[in-house]
Amino acid sequence: MRAALTTHGYFYSSNVDCLPQTYIENVYSYAQQLHALPTEQKRHCARPKGTYSGSDVGVDELAYEAGSTASVRAWDYSRTRFPTSGHNYPDVTCSVTGQGFFEFLDDLYERQDILGKALMTGFAEMLDLPPETFAQCFEGHDMGTIRLLRYPPAETPEEAARRQVASYGISPHTDFEAFTLMHQSAAGLQFLKPGGRAWLDAPVKKEEFVVIVGDVLERFTNGVLRATPHRVLQTEWERFSIIRFNAMRPETLIQPLPEFISKSRPARYTPVTMQKHMDTTLTRLERGLGAWEKELETPVERLINYHYPSQYVVQRLRKGQDINIDGHLEEDAWSEVPWLDDFLDLAGPRFDGWKEASRDYARRFTGSSNPTRVKLRWDDAFLYVAAELRSRQEQASVNIHLDRLPQAVWGRTVVNEALRPYFDDDFEVFIDESQSNYFYVEFELNARNASYTTLWSQPQAGLGSVAPGVCCNTTWNGGKGLCDHGVEREGGSWTLEMFAESLRPGTGMISATSNTTEMWVLEIRFPILSRRSSQEAVLLPENSPTVELCHCSVSAQPHGDQHGGLLNSPVSQRLPHVQAEKLHPANGQRFWWATFANALHAPWWSKLTAADTKHPELIKQRCQEEIRGDKQRYGFSQFLLDANNAAPTCYYEAASQNLGGHQYMHNPDVFGYLQFESTPDAASCRNVFWLSRFLLAQLYQAEVQYLMNRNFGNGTYTSNLVQLLNPSVCDISNACNATALQQALDYVNVAIHVDGARSGKCVRYAIPAVQTSNWTGGALL
Ligand SMILES: O=C(O)CCC(=O)C(=O)O
Ligand SMILES: [Fe+2]
């Protein structure tokens, strides 16, 4: 329970004898009877005096999140909270059991009590408290409530489309009581896991009950357990749920227990009775203030909770465990580890001129509507990656491994001739082991095992494309950016060892299988650090030609065939101080930056011909048609028409990273974290460097913007932070968020040293781990 609650915020209770499946079905059929009553009758039972609420009687569910609306309709039953009197309850007997309203719900209440009490004891034991701690305030007339909920279906296609983007079944909130038992007839319920940002779907389980923590347990444990934020989406389909809030008796004092108070962790909540806690929370709600006020969240916590990227704990394979790279994820090694599934639609926030550049917006086409899921394991030799991808219509036209790219390929926009797997729907992996923005590996695979790997010396676009200590002395690049376009032409000068000639073909390193037209599964094992001898021609020569960091004016020389593990980049393609060995998880390296993506394209994209590509305006038109069609079908389109691109792209990318300015994969600064662990179920720990990483990335963006803006720097950088915080300089379309930056600056000391004008000089951009120069000048804030 503890592991489930701290990692996921919920767990499922199964084998609950007192609430068997047939019984649950009875509850649903009685709920249906109640909800099917004529409006007139429901109006008679409406709140405040009755037990019914819903928009059909003009008593909407309270807005848990200020400003939101909810479509849920509820029959509520509580022995203490709203004792029903007179005739304000429905006089309906259950057609299966013959019981009336009170009789039926009392029976359900008693049965739920059995599970509830067991859990109260369980919670106490889990927290090393005397088993009776919670259960003793539960017996008798507690403040618990049963809710039989109905979420009406969408009546029209327009309504269905609208529901994809707007409003809720029930808006985000935490429950006020100790813990909640939930059962749902259909999907729609979602949770935020502790510290998480992505809403995760609660699977529908016929015989099991979801258990989540509420405010009261959070208060008792002084915040050690956190109430689980949850919400219900406004689904197209009709949905019923059976909810039971488990609470204490009204007079019970809810206060942090001494076991959870220490000098370093003083009591964070004032004592309050159960009754008072309910009253205050409800009053707040009635005033439209929203209940989901996270009292505990300090500004820095809020900042971290909102912007921290996805993170996955990669567990080492246990002794004797093996993974067969065959595209079937049947091994224990896979089933025993969780999925990484909080993906964001990178294209999304660019719609409508960034008006909705929020994570919620970026998530509207991920999650249950379009799941992308990844799992990872590691051992001394390999990083294992498994993924399940969905696409509307999976496309795979390319079927070769692409290395040693003929130089000419890069000059072309010809899609099908270029044979790049990423013109198909593909899975993409980006790993920056040195966590520096430089020399990161990219790997791509389509559903026909066509693959592509390359090592990028700089981010291909945007952020970090100026290396620390090395200045990019190009011209201004037509205002497009600084050295903004990297070195893809180098692809092939280095590839992963698994693609070395001597190891081919098919050495069980990758396998992609598609089992339906909509889903494909893949498995990859990446060598981490190759130890093969030089005779085998895969150990990388130490004297390979130096590659200039600035590729804007100097064209890079291909190195010839070089192959290696993720850490075997040639010495010339590493930061000077980075030692490959030290970055190996087996040698104690705990974090790497990484992101994974499911990249989807319009179905015709990979079939474009050379002739087509001579007419970007036609491609653009087709893409616009695609977007229009989607908008009619779904109310919005996930495809991005990137008008800035010479050949317009028509793609969608769900990626496991934070949002960045370019909404593109090539921004290591927004990559998520891989956390390597050797013990099973190790806790996920946030990386302490993240805040400075986040802040410096934003400052960098702001500096570039400042420099290029005629009304601001007009060719010069600034060491004045106030100038960088100007919203015209630090704006969302440029991955800069002035509010977040301002908040971060309250917690991190920053000095900016500027050499002066841009030409030949640089603004230095570094994170602590890779800072290579001394800072001088600038104001220390
Ligand atoms: O319907 C559901 O699954 C959730 C309902 C809920 O969160 C509530 O009533 O507090
Ligand atoms: Fe709830």
Automatic annotation (TrEMBL):
Q: Which domain of life is it from?
A: Eukaryota
**Pfam families the UniProt entry points to:** 2OG-FeII_Oxy
- The chain positions of domain Fe2OG dioxygenase read 133-252
Report TM segments: none
SUPFAM superfamilies for the chain: CBD9-like (SSF49344), Clavaminate synthase-like (SSF51197)
Q: Which residues belong to the signal peptide in this entry?
A: none
Coiled coil region boundaries: none
Which PANTHER family does the UniProt entry name for this protein? 2-OXOGLUTARATE (2OG) AND FE(II)-DEPENDENT OXYGENASE SUPERFAMILY PROTEIN-RELATED
Put simply, this protein is called: Fe2OG dioxygenase domain-containing protein
Gene source species? Durusdinium trenchii
Lineage runs: Eukaryota, Sar, Alveolata, Dinophyceae, Suessiales
